[in-house]
């Protein structure tokens, strides 16, 4: 299958990329790893006249620790880099774990966090992980700049609030509180190269190793047109002592936030059961991780 014709640009600065985007408007697409875009172009779902590559723009592929503050992740950081970054594994665990479950190694070496977020597939791995970490996305156009919480970014399958002349230039996540642990679990029908049937990202904060739970965030993917936060389950957890029974009850409440469908990958009933099971399992894993917290 051949790609449609297009002109290709490799700007060397962010400013040049933004200028090109503003001049070319809706007929241009940004290309990062190309693992989504090139497939869609080959299938003729998209036929942009211009591709603007992020490859040569310095700094977009960096993970920068903001001392006592958080982490800034460039949109061109690949899933492979996210999955092996020690800071992310330790403090921002759901992002590292979700990145490690995205596709197979050959995909992870090219696929970027920016592409995964902007692509906005309901089953994508990184959106729920960014949601539980309260990430903020910085969007820039040639004349403007705005920040938006990741939870307000998605509008529907393949749809976000980003404008055609805007670039996602960074993802910022604040440092989680002491005694916080995180987890990410993805269920697919196969072990690799599988789009999620259900995925769950969790953050749990304890007052001390003895409890109680003082903060909880749960985000679910592939269960609705956009990833969703299970707010009712989060509220249920706050103030309670961590236990398998409490985690199981939170899983049951979590199902109430979802609109799962029946398709070739699983029935609605099976998905509901999996949301319940995976939520409670992810909470247990996050709790165990919280107990290992070190200043
Ligand atoms: C075989 C295979 C397996 C896959 N498995 C998974 C999986 O398990 N889980 C999963 O979540 N995904 C999976 N994917 C989808 C894909 O790999 C990911 O969504 C990936 O993260 C996309 O990143 P990219 O850099 O390749 O994006 P690209 O294809 O380069 O871009 C995707 C979209 O985002 C836009 N874009 C990219 N960067 C920016 C930016 N900085 N600012 C504005 N717009 C931008 C592009 O214009 C395009 O519309 C798979 C894909 C393939 C081909």
Question: How would you describe the overall organization of this protein?
Answer:
This protein has 295 residues and is α+β, with helices and mostly antiparallel strands. α9 (231-237) packs antiparallel against α10. The model has no long low-confidence stretch (mean pLDDT 93). 46% of the residues are buried. The chain has 3 domains: 7-53, Uridine Diphospho-n-acetylenolpyruvylglucosamine Reductase, domain 2 (2-Layer Sandwich), CATH 3.30.43; 63-174, Uridine Diphospho-n-acetylenolpyruvylglucosamine Reductase, domain 3 (2-Layer Sandwich); 180-290, CO dehydrogenase flavoprotein, C-terminal domain (Enolase-like, domain 1, 2-Layer Sandwich), CATH 3.30.390. It has helices spanning 14-24, 37-42, 79-84, 86-91, 93-100, 105-108, 113-119, 126-132, 231-237, 244-255, 268-290; strands at residues 7-9, 28-31, 50-53, 63-66, 70-73, 136-140, 145-149, 154-156, 159-160, 167-174, 180-187, 198-206, 213-221, 228-229. The protein has a 5-stranded antiparallel beta sheet with strand order 4-5-10-6-7, with no helix packed on it. Strands 11-12-13-14 form a 4-stranded antiparallel beta sheet. Strands 1-3-2 form a 3-stranded parallel beta sheet, covered by helices on one side. Helix content is 33%, strand content 24%. β2, α2 (37-42) and β3 (50-53) form a beta-alpha-beta unit. It contains 11 helices and 14 strands. The protein binds flavin-adenine dinucleotide. Residues 29-37, 39, 54, 75, 102-103, 107, 110-112, 114-116, 118-119, 124-125, 162, 167-168, 193, 195 line the site of flavin-adenine dinucleotide (FAD). Flavin-adenine dinucleotide is lined by residues 29-37, 39, 54, 75, 102-103, 107, 110-112, 114-116, 118-119, 124-125, 162, 167-168, 193, 195.
């Amino acid at each position: 299958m051949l790609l449609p014709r297009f002109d290709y640009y490799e700007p060397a600065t962010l400013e040049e990329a933004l200028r090109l985007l503003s001049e070319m408007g809706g007929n241009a697409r940004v290309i990062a790893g190309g693992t989504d875009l090139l497939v869609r172009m080959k299938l003729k779902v998209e036929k942009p006249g211009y591709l603007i590559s992020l490859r040569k723009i310095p700094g977009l592929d960096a993970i920068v620790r903001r001392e006592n503050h958080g982490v800034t992740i460039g949109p061109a950081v690949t899933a492979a880099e996210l999955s092996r970054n020690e800071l992310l594994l330790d403090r921002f665990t759901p992002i590292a774990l979700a990145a490690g479950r995205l596709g197979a190694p050959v995909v992870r070496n090219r696929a970027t966090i920016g592409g995964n977020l902007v692509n906005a597939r309901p089953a994508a791995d990184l959106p729920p992980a960014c949601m539980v970490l309260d990430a903020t996305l910085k969007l820039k156009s040639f004349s403007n700049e705005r920040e938006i919480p990741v939870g307000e970014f998605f509008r529907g399958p393949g749809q976000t609030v980003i404008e055609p002349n805007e670039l996602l230039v960074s993802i910022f996540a604040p440092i989680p509180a002491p005694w916080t642990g995180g987890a990410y679990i993805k269920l697919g029908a196969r072990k690799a190269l599988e789009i999620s049937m259900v995925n769950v990202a969790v953050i749990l904060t304890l007052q001390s190793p003895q409890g109680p739970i003082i903060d909880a965030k749960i985000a679910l993917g592939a269960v609705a047109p956009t990833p969703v936060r299970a707010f009712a389950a989060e509220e249920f957890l706050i103030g309670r002592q961590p236990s398998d029974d409490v985690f199981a009850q939170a899983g049951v409440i979590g199902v109430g936030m979802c609109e799962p469908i029946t398709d070739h990958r699983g029935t609605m009933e099976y998905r509901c059961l999996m949301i319940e099971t995976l939520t409670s399992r992810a909470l247990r894993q996050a709790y165990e991780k919280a107990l290992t917290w070190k200043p």
